[in-house]
Amino acid sequence: MDHVPGDTSPDPATPADLPDVAPQLRALRRRRGLTLEAAAQRAGLSPAHLSRLETGNRQPSLPMLLGLARVYGTTVSELLGEALPERDPVVRAGRSEPVEADGWIYRQVGGAGRALQCLRVHVPHATRADIVRVHPGEEWIHVLEGRVRLALGEAVHVLDPGDSAHFDSLTPHRIGAATPGGAELLFVHTLMQSPAAELCLGDGTPHRR
User: What is the rounded CA–CA span in Å between residue 173 and residue 51?
Assistant: First the structure.
């Protein structure tokens, strides 16, 4: 929620020692080629509130930083100007908590902040209400369990366990399980370097299970 003009009370969940992130927020938005209005809409803020964040007149809360990092395809550490630690090339089983968005349940199985985002995904049963996606980048899926219905443009493919698909995600596409109990797949996509840096999962707000 935006604060009323003149309100100088701190945002909730904002650390007192948060560094000045205003220049970095403005630079990242411009680097992504986003207008103030477009970036604010994607982050769930008003343009006026985002403008205040970029000029240093308001400090962002941690949820805001998470949302803006997702919009700009970066990390909260980069927003805060922190030096990134050396990346561990190994992702251990059990380190990633499952996250749910509109029935999709996914786990990170790749490193954070990479150009490729690697996920293990439980896909719910396909319905006519499933959203058709179009965005820059490429996607690769590999079916582990169950059957997957993949609509690419006008073509519909049914993938069995062991089958894979690799496609340009500017092609309108829709993914859903062809089995009532859902399906498990590996999902790799290249959204992290795109201005449309969003997970191609569900249409709601992801939340921890």
Answer: 35
Distance CA 135, CA 104 (A): 19
CA–CA gap between residue 64 and residue 110 (Å, rounded): 24
Report the C-alpha gap between 48 and 51 in whole angstroms: 5
Phi-psi category of 13—alpha, beta or left, where left has phi over 0 and alpha has psi -120 to 50?
Answer: left
User: What pLDDT, in 10s, does the model give residues 25-34?
Assistant: 888 888 888 8
Element (H, E) at 79: helix 76-79
Closest to 190 in 3D by CA, of 118, 130, 105, 82: 118
Site of tokens 């894979």: 164
CA distance 104 to 129: 14
Find the mean pLDDT for residues 164-187.
93
Q: For 60-67, which contacts have Cβ atoms below 8 Å and span 24 or more sequence positions? A: 60/11, 60/14, 60/18, 60/21, 60/25, 61/11, 61/12, 61/13, 61/14, 62/13, 62/14, 62/15, 63/13, 64/11, 65/21, 67/43
Is residue 132 very low, low, confident or very high in pLDDT (cuts 50, 70, 90)?
confident
CA-wise closest residue to 164 among 191, 194, 134, 144 = 144
pLDDT at 142: 97
On whether the CB atoms of residues 42 and 32 are closer than 8 A, the answer is no
How confident is the model over 1-18, as a mean pLDDT?
Answer: 41
> Using one digit for the tens of pLDDT, what is the confidence trace for 87-112?
677 877 777 778 887 788 888 888 76
